Amino acid sequence: MSPILVRPVREQLEHDRVIRALQQRFRRRFEVALNIGAELTAPIKVGLVTVFPDLVLTTTGRTAKLGGVVEVETSESVNNLEAMAQWAHLGRTKVPFSLYVPAGSVEMARRLCADHQVTVDEIWSYYATGPTQIRFAMVHRASAAKPAAAARRGARTRSASASRPKRARTRTGRASGGSAKRPAAKRKSAPAGRKSPARARSQKRK
What pTM did the predictor assign? Predict the structure, then answer.
């Protein structure tokens, strides 16, 4: 259970309204269970600890499984105690953890996540634009695509080097495609019984 047990009435109403709005957003892709107010009906286990995220997302289909957890905070609950008691545990789940905070508390949430080494997949800000409307904006997303892209680039490089033909080595140690030394041409010898012109001139001088 969150250490923030009692919020001011105004903030509690805002907190519950944000949860309801997120329920409508996520219900297109997930089965959404809520832990709202005193109604703690959807616990999850993180190691030996039981926590109650504000929204628990379950995949639809034959094999339903945990698809994500969402925590909604107000300006009063963005603090060290909440980060240690809730965020740190939710960040250790094997599913995406999304954190929603008021627009004025974004930098504080970032700093708390960094200080307590909380693994958060997304941080969203929210603010009310009317009596019933709430706007959301993503302010942080974990960069999980970079290692995958680097791995793909490395695989392409290894594949290209493996498919490149290697030059065969000759006896001289040079590649067959290079310029190897040509063997020296043999000097033609005069046929038997016939004197070469140079030898004939030498005999005439004598």
Answer: 0.68
